Structures are given as C-alpha cells and as structure tokens.
C-alpha cells in the first residue's frame, strides 16, 4: 500500500502507453473516483488521465477546462480506475482506496462541448455494458472539477443557466392548451419536455431558437448506438422512446409557422432523437415544407437525417428546405456500415445527397461523431478530407459518441489500429487550416450565422 491506495499491474496497457508532454508549471488535476454509493472524491497522490482508443494519455494544460455547468457525472461499474503516479512516473490501476473498493468516474459534458479524451479504466470480466452516453476524462483541483475537452460552439441555446424550469413547465402546459388538437405538440410537451427534459423541446415551449419536429416512427438504419430503439440483446436501454405516429402536414405547419415567425434566431428541425429516419416520410415533409413556406419565409427549415434517399432530399430542397445535417460516425464506408447497418441504401447515397444540397446552394452540415483515437487517426482524416472535397459541406458539428467505448472498439475492430493519431485538438486545427470556409460548432445555425465565407464555390 502507498498513500492509502492499492496499486495493480497495468500489463494489458504497457505496450500502448503514450505519455503526453508534461508541463512543470501546471498543476494537474487529481484522479476522481467513486465509492459506489453515490459519492465521488479525489485521490491526491495521483493525476487524472484519459484514453484514446486503448492508449493512456496525461492531458496537457490546453486540453483541460472546468467542468461545464449542466454536465453529469457517472460511476463506471465493473471497471478499475487508472491514474498517473508522479513519483513512480507511471500509470497505475486503483482498485481500492483506504481499504475500500473504488470505481472510475466520467463526465457526460453539457451540449456544445467536444471531448478530447475519454475516461481511463480497465474493464473487468463480466462488467455491464455502459449506457448510451459519452464518458469524458474527469479530474479535481482547487475546489473544482476539470474535464478533457473544449467548448466548440458558443451559442448558448442549450445552456442550463438560461433555463427556468418552473417557467418551462408553465409554458409547456400553455402550449399544450393552445394547440389542444395537435398530436405532435402533445408529444413534444408530454414526452420531450415533461418526461425527458429535452433541451430543444424546452426551447420550443419557451418560443425561442431551434424547435424540434419529430415525424417518423420508422428507420432504414439499425444504428448500434440508436438512442430511441435497442434490441434486448444489446444490453442497454435507449434513453427515450420513439414517436409512435406520423403527424399530418397541417399539424406540423400549425405550430412551426408561429415559431418561425416570432422566435429569435428561428430554426425548425425534422429528425430528432425520439424518431426514426424522416426521409421515410418524405411525402409528409414535402407537403409540410410547402405549407410553411406559403405562410412565412422567415427562419430556417432544417433536416437532420442519414441522407439515405437522394431523390427525396432533392424534392425537399425544391419545396423549400434550407439546410441539412447528416449524421456520420466515420467517413470510411466499412466503418460507417458497421455502425449504421443501412437497409436498402449505401454510403454513396449519403455522398450523393450532400452533393445535391451543394448544387442547390443550400447549407449542409455533418453531425460527426467524435471518438478520440479514431476520429483523429490519419486514415479517418484522409477519408473525411475526400468526403469534404467531394461534397463541399459548410459545417462540421462535433458530437461526442454516446456509446460504451469498448463496445464501439470491438464493433469497429479498432483494437489494432495504429496509435499514430494526431489528437482531437490538433485534428480540429488541421481541419481549420485545410478547409478555412468550414464552420465548426454543435448546433444547427440560424440564418444569421450562414455567412458567405462559409460557402465554397457558391456565393
């Protein structure tokens, strides 16, 4: 025993350890663990560390920020925490502290933040699969938590500090009464606001910014990390249920037109976490967009989608769709297929949809899932560069992958991927240098942020 904690061998990691540059002037945050009873505390003899794939890293000063308000902390059961011992100059496992078992912890960062490193731990046999969240490296120093990440979008539309929960509840019931016959409004109020606390749905009832518009109960992907539908064999429970009906075009237009007319920085978005793929109800969306644009030209009509049906994307653009956001875990077709498990469409269809948006001179974004060690690997960077060159997208929205990291590594067969990644911070820098017109962020932008400099060979 040393310092009250028990050390264990790190033999499974020894060939993978890479130590980041260590600043002598910077006070590194301490390792944070859980006692398994709802309490977390620091181990002052050890520093926090993070992981990229299976590589353990000591974060640099510029890769650490105070824990954002609105973030959540998680205990990771069936796993052993890993920290850095500055006296022994090595990474160590910590199964116990002061004679009691301890567990790794992680942060699920608030919206608008990108993860640099995931929480570092060793998984024990028969450990349960982690729920569908992202798990960011967490530390403690000078009376505050630190995480390995960065704010990527300074739009505050989902900042918890701007949410008055009592006002949300009052406004939700008023919205429900105002649209007493509208099934979709009832779904947004009863499920999204009151049951799930959805930030976008809260903004809808507060009549501001981006309004969600779920429409499709069906999907043509079997995404492994789907947050609205999971097979029992997956071992995880989806955090929300999928919408069970298809709204009519009039139901959609009834509440979205007032939102576009009166909300500041107004956006409405088809394609939400509580639904399947909206392109599969393309006829409904096409008619709804026409109805909306007959009544108002204000604001942005956006589509969050897997981009599986280029012909439907074309029709929606002709009807008045302003922007499209395409979800993507990888720009490499084999890795894309392994995660999305597409039915009756291909990766080429995704590319074609983005090319169509570019031809129509509309806004296109990637909803790009960030997974340190893969996202920033040279092979993935090269594949993403080819995709950008072919489609001329306007924006990359960075989304931390919400999935058990080791499940993802096994699924993608990433165990033997070479450890030559550039780091997420450097990855962002390389992309900004190579593609200076691309906007980086987290949210679907309003019209005010779709500036001419973000368009390539268009405006």
Characterise this structure.
Keywords: 4Fe-4S, Iron, Iron-sulfur, Metal-binding, S-adenosyl-L-methionine. With about 450 residues, this protein is of the alpha+beta class. The protein has two domains: about 150 residues, no CATH class; about 290 residues, Aldolase class I (TIM Barrel, Alpha-Beta Barrel), CATH 3.20.20.70. Helix content is about 25%, strand content about 25%. The strands form four sheets. Strands 2, 3, 6, 7, 11, 12, 15 and 16 form an eight-stranded antiparallel sheet that branches. Helix 6 links the parallel strand 19 and strand 20. The longest helix is centred in the middle third of the chain and has 14 residues. The termini are far apart.
User: Could you tell me the radius of gyration in angstroms?
Assistant: 23 Å
Please, what is the CATH homologous superfamily of the largest domain?
Answer: Aldolase class I
Low-confidence stretches: 11-21
Give the class from helix and strand content and strand pairing.
alpha+beta
Q: How many domains make up the 3D coordinates?
A: 2
Number of helix segments?
11
Amount of helix:
25-40%
Give the overall silhouette. Answer: globular
Looking at the structure, the CATH topology of the largest domain is TIM Barrel
InterPro entries: Aldolase_TIM, Organic_radical-activating, rSAM, rSAM_sf
Keywords: 4Fe-4S, Iron, Iron-sulfur, Metal-binding, S-adenosyl-L-methionine
Protein name: Radical SAM domain protein
Domain Radical SAM core: 205-431
């Amino acid at each position: 025993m040393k310092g009250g904690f028990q050390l264990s061998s790190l033999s499974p990691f020894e060939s993978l350890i890479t130590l980041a540059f260590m600043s002598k002037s910077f006070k590194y945050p301490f390792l944070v663990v859980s006692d398994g009873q709802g309490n977390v505390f620091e181990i002052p003899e050890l520093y926090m560390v993070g992981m990229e794939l299976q590589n353990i890293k000591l974060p640099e000063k510029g890769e650490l920020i105070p824990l954002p308000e609105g973030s959540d902390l998680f205990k990771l059961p069936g796993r052993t925490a890993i920290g850095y011992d500055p006296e022994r100059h090595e990474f160590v496992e910590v199964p116990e502290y002061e004679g009691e078992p301890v567990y790794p912890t992680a942060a699920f960062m608030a919206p608008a933040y990108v993860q640099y490193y995931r929480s570092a731990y060793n998984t024990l046999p028969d450990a349960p699969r982690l729920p569908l969240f992202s798990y960011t490296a967490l530390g403690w120093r000078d009376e505050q938590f630190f995480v390995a990440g960065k704010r990527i979008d300074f739009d505050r539309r989902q900042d918890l500090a701007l949410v008055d929960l009592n006002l949300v509840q009052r406004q939700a019931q008023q919205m429900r009464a105002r649209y007493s016959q509208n099934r979709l409004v009832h779904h947004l109020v009863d499920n999204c606001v009151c049951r799930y606390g959805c930030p976008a749905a809260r903004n809808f009832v507060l009549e501001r910014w981006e309004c969600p518009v779920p429409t499709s109960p069906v999907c043509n992907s079997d995404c492994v990390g789907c947050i609205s539908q999971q097979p029992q064999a997956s071992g995880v429970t989806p955090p929300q249920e999928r919408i069970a009906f298809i709204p009519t075009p009039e139901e959609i237009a009834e509440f979205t037109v007032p939102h576009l007319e009166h909300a500041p920085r107004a956006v409405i978005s088809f394609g939400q976490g509580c639904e399947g793929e909206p392109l599969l109800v393309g006829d409904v969306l096409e008619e709804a967009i026409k109805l909306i644009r007959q009544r108002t030209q204000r604001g942005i009509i956006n589509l969050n989608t897997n981009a599986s049906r280029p012909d439907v994307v074309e029709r929606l653009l002709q009807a008045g769709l302003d922007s499209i956001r395409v979800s993507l875990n990888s720009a490499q077709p084999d890795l894309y297929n392994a995660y999305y498990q597409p039915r009756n469409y291909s990766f080429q269809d995704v590319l074609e949809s983005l090319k169509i948006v570019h031809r129509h001179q509309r806004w296109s974004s990637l909803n790009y899932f960030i997974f340190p060690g893969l996202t920033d690997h040279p092979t993935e960077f090269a594949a993403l560069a080819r995709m950008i060159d072919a489609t001329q997208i306007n924006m990359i929205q960075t989304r931390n992958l919400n999935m058990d990291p080791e499940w993802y590594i096994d699924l993608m067969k990433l165990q033997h991927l070479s450890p030559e990644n550039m780091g997420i911070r450097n990855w962002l820098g390389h992309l900004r240098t190579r593609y200076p017109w691309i906007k980086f962020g987290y949210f679907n932008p309003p019209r005010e942020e779709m500036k001419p400099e973000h368009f390539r060979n268009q405006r």
